[in-house]
Amino acid sequence: MLRLKSKVGCFDNTGAKLLEVIAPVKQHALNNVYLGRAFIGFVKRASLGKSVQRKQIIKGLLICTRKKHRRPDGSFIQFNQNRAILLKKATKEQLASTKAAKRWATKTEPLGTAITSAIPLELRQKRLKKLVLHAGQVY
């Protein structure tokens, strides 16, 4: 569970190292961001010579949280840090049409080509197939 101004580590090969949450996607800015939800944020720290730069506003997806998450079988899952990956941004042509903008808000195409962290099983059940393909393992 993340709130406004929370800092999240980025675990893909886009070059971003640390992100700061601005607001959840399609929700009020003061709402929390939970496991598997998209958010709008900006890059606090980044590697030189990569596809993203510092202070760039991006769309991210929260893949691991420090807060306990209850699974349907009654067990809990908890990670030692908050982790996120970056998602692709919409082009100007897609944003010109309101229908395409609504469709793009729910799209989850990863920006990087590899995810360096294990992802929880809940993301696989949410039909995020591209994330499962890029991830090393599903936990």
Tell me briefly what this model is.
17% of the residues lie in helices and 28% in strands. The chain is an alpha+beta fold. The strands form two sheets. It has a five-stranded mixed beta barrel with strand order 1-2-3-4-7. It has a two-stranded antiparallel sheet with strand order 5-6.
Give the total of domains. 1
Shape: globular
Mean pLDDT: 86
Task: Quickly give the structural class.
Answer: alpha+beta
CATH fold-level assignment: Ribosomal Protein L14
Spell out the CATH superfamily. Ribosomal protein L14/L23
Low-confidence stretches: none
Strand and helix order: EEEEEEEHHHH
Q: Architecture in CATH?
A: Beta Barrel
CATH C-level class is Mainly Beta
Please estimate the helix content.
10-25%
The largest pleated sheet is described as: 5 strands, mixed, barrel
Individual helix count: 4
Radius of gyration (Å): 15 Å
> How many beta-strand elements?
7
Q: What is the strand content?
A: 25-35%
Rounded to the nearest angstrom, the distance between the terminal CA atoms is 19 Å
Give a topology summary:
Layout: E1 7-10, E2 16-24, E3 38-46, E4 57-64, E5 69-70, E6 76-77, E7 83-87, H1 92-96, H2 98-105, H3 121-125, H4 129-134
Parallel strand pairs: 1-7
Antiparallel strand pairs: 1-2, 2-3, 3-4, 4-7, 5-6
